[in-house]
Design goal:
Layout: H1 6-21, E1 31-38, E2 44-50, E3 61-67, E4 95-100, H2 106-115, E5 120-124, E6 153-156, H3 158-169, E7 175-179, E8 191-197, H4 205-226, E9 230-236, H5 249-254, E10 255-256, E11 261-262, H6 276-295, H7 301-312, H8 322-331, H9 336-343, H10 353-362, E12 376-379, E13 382-383, H11 390-398, E14 429-430, E15 435-436, E16 438-439, E17 446-447, E18 451-452, E19 455-459, E20 465-468, E21 482-485, E22 488-491, E23 493-494, E24 497-498, E25 504-506, E26 512-514, E27 529-534, E28 537-542, E29 546-549, E30 554-557, H12 558-606
Helix pairs in contact: 4-7, 6-7, 6-9, 7-8
Protein name: EGF-like calcium-binding domain-containing protein
GO biological process, one term: protein targeting to vacuole
Keywords: Calcium, Cytoplasmic vesicle, Disulfide bond, EGF-like domain, Glycoprotein, Golgi apparatus, Membrane, Protein transport, Repeat, Signal, Transmembrane, Transmembrane helix, Transport
Amino acid sequence: MGFRSGGAMLRLLVWAAFLLGCCHGRFVVEKNSLKVTAPDDLKGTYECAIGNFGVPQYGGTMVGFVAYPKANKKACKSFGDFDISYKAKPGSFPTFLLVDRGDCYFTKKAWNAQNAGAAAILVADDKDEPLITMDTPEESGRAEYLENITIPSALITKSFGDRLKKAIDNGDMVNVNLDWREALPHPDERVEYEFWTNSNDECGPKCDSQIDFVKSFKGAAQVLEKKGYTEFTPHYITWYCPEAFILSKQCKSQCINHGRYCAPDPEQDFSKGYDGKDVVVQNLRQVCVFKVAKEHKKPWLWWDYVTDFAIRCPMKEKKYTKECADGVIKSLGLDHKAIDKCIGDPDADEENPVLKAEQDAQIGKGSRGDVTILPTLVINNRQYRGKLDKGAVLKALCAGFRETTEPAVCLSEDIQTNECLENNGGCWQDKASNITACKDTFRGRVCECPVVKGVKFVGDGYTHCEASGSGRCEINNGGCWKETRNGRTYSACTDDGCKCPDGFKGDGKHKCEDIDECKERTACQCKECKCKNTWGSYECGCSGGLLYMKEHDTCISKNGATETGWGFLWVIFFGLVAAGIAGYAVYKYRIRRYMDSEIRAIMAQYMPLDNQGDVQSHSHHIEM
């Protein structure tokens, strides 16, 4: 097939130059695993390449058997013409149709296989080579059926295909499990994804499918972004013009910044309509809208801008202009001056930092590979393969969350089946308290003991879960025994586990039985005692009018107890009286001695005392 125009040749040269000029171009084929479970000589796991059409079951698996048609082996014609059907009968395995590569587009093979009733299509390569990605055809070969292909597709190697065909020819039933659970990384509770797109709305069905996807996916994307479940980044592919062509008419009309950033002419006609450089500027404006919106903590406004611009400013109506774009920006409350500053001068002979970053991002890093197909969706640094459809893409995004961290939208019936609804997923369950260890995730259920009202349950999640720690008794009594009789309630629940309370015996979990203290002679055993067992306790009385003292497990006379009590009180009374009299006597004695000493001291000042001896005459004079 030849090139359609010099513009197409130039685009190819530009793209080749871009790949050679930026590090080393590397396209990564995205794969899933194919596990053969029978026959024995084919058992094992094989790699296959995910087709870039249909709906891969990201995060899930499919089980079926492989069929190889006796006629129409390349599936380029309708199987109805050969009276062949692969529609599954009730209770039977789905059919994975194996066909040969060649003679028609991969998508045509998939469409014919789907119409024949196949659940998936496996295309066997016709040459020994590394796996490639099966893509949709160019615009000239596209057809309406492309958007209606829903079955997953995969390319397998020639050698593996030959082995499958041989087994089928020998009459073996080849059972296969297609597994997409690890096709996308799912490391944490947030999914990071990129959408490589284009503002050009005149490039045919691919451009139409891009804008249709943006319109349909906008609501879900904005909800996921606002709630912090995802981190989205839009990107735009540009090329640079080889130095030898910078002054050519083609480069001048398709590039800005002196050939540094280029896009194909929308109509492939350089003499009419909009030019490739107009597309580059609008692409740049959309990147800047996202950057400014993100700086204002509203990155989701990109979806509104792109949708409104496509509706209000189409090329067909000659509104693909800055004036129309500014009107959309103003209606969304964005700062158009900041956006214009971000865009810079398209005529300047200098690099534009925003578009330079976009070109750098096109080159693959790690496991992602180069972005060479438009549109391209990259989820958790892995390129998405399949139909650009809201349901299919949402399913792929959901596959990027770590188990049990998915948002509610991923667990809806439209996206996946809730395995906990059938037999509780085989997990532990407390029906009385409506507590279960079954957690529905996008990849299937997991059995994990729950946390309820701040109380953590521990166990294997399958057969056993038990509340632990403080507060455990508030949840179903901690799973311990509890019973109420005659208005009295006893519980075996403690912070440390299940232990029967005093007066009961048992395991504390399933059963606690009353201890008959009377029968087991553990209480009320004195000679005069009369024992009566009660639930959880006992009652003890005494014969002959005696009084029972529980702490001593004995009976005493009520009269004796009274006389003893009064005697004790009299002893205390007289003791207190005696102490008072003694205290008063001591007080009087000490006061009297103190007063005597004071009087003697005063008298000694005015007259000699008998025991004082002679006092000199000059000591004191008293005049009468």
